[in-house]
């Protein structure tokens, strides 16, 4: 059945998946604006948050009461709530990372410089593409999806390159040990 | 009362948000993500099948 603004709530309740592209097409502009207001920064976080909002709408549609609120208002409120939740989570994560970072720095201050040097010289054993992908993924912490889009390739291609690179480095390290 | 029911009482001033449309590509990516989250079992089965295929390939080679 064709999904429209009038029947979208009913179609979600009926679990008609055609309602999903309709929701995205019709409301993603507004939801994206709400998310961006709260989550200033990581593009991937914003997309993930938007996907979470849509999943919440999908699973909690029975909580929507058309006599109390407009559908647009209800999903906007969910979006605001999710975005704030994301900020809380990322702040907690940052706090955790900085604590771990501090502990690690205290315990390995002496060897850290050497490790960085070893890492960069080790990465030189890789070809240009592999090195770029390794640095982005393991040093900068860029998600594989973003790396893939940068290289206009699939996510699986990035993981393939990482796997091949790891094998190469493993062989080199094992050789050095022997 | 669930949080999602409580959100029926929230009225936001939507005029303060200027719509920021997503590109076709972004919309497709989000749709795929949502579908994966809605059907986690399907993906698990797919991954299980893929793992079995990889293990079988290793054993044969």
Automatic annotation (TrEMBL), chain A:
Entry protein name: Sigma-70 family RNA polymerase sigma factor
InterPro entries: RNA_pol_sigma-70-like, RNA_pol_sigma-70_dom, RNA_pol_sigma70_r2, RNA_pol_sigma70_r4_t2, RNA_pol_sigma_r2, RNA_pol_sigma_r3/r4-like, WH-like_DNA-bd_sf
Domain (RNA polymerase sigma factor 70 region 4 type) ranges: 119-169
Pfam families recorded: Sigma70_r2 (PF04542), Sigma70_r4_2 (PF08281)
Gene3D superfamilies linked to this entry: 1.10.1740.10, Winged helix-like DNA-binding domain superfamily/Winged helix DNA-binding domain
GO molecular function: DNA binding; sigma factor activity
Keywords: DNA-binding, Sigma factor, Transcription, Transcription regulation
Family label: Belongs to the sigma-70 factor family. ECF subfamily.
Stretches assigned to the RNA polymerase sigma-70 region domain: 23-91
One Gene Ontology term from the biological process aspect of the record: DNA-templated transcription initiation
């Amino acid at each position: 059945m064709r999904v429209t603004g009038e029947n979208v709530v009913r179609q979600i309740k009926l679990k008609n998946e055609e309602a999903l592209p309709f929701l995205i097409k019709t409301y993603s502009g507004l939801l994206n604006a709400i998310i961006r207001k709260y989550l200033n920064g990581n593009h991937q976080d914003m997309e993930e948050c938007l996907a979470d909002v849509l999943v919440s709408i999908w699973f909690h549609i029975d909580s929507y009461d058309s006599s109390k609120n407009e559908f647009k208002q209800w999903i906007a409120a969910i979006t605001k709530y999710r975005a704030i939740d994301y900020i809380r989570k990322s702040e907690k994560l940052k706090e955790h990372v900085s604590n771990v970072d501090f502990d690690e720095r205290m315990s390995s201050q002496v060897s850290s410089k050497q490790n960085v040097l070893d890492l960069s010289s080790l990465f030189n054993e890789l070809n240009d593409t592999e090195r770029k992908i390794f640095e982005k993924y393991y040093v900068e912490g860029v998600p594989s999806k973003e790396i893939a889009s940068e290289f206009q390739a699939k996510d699986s291609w990035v993981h393939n390159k990482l796997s091949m690179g790891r094998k190469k480095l493993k062989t080199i390290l094992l050789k050095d040990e022997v | 009362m669930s949080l999602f029911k409580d959100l029926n009482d929230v009225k936001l001033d939507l005029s303060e948000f200027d719509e920021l449309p997503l590109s076709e590509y972004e919309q497709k990516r989000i749709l795929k993500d949502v579908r994966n989250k809605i059907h986690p079992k399907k993906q698990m089965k797919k991954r299980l099948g893929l793992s079995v295929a990889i293990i079988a390939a290793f054993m044969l080679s």
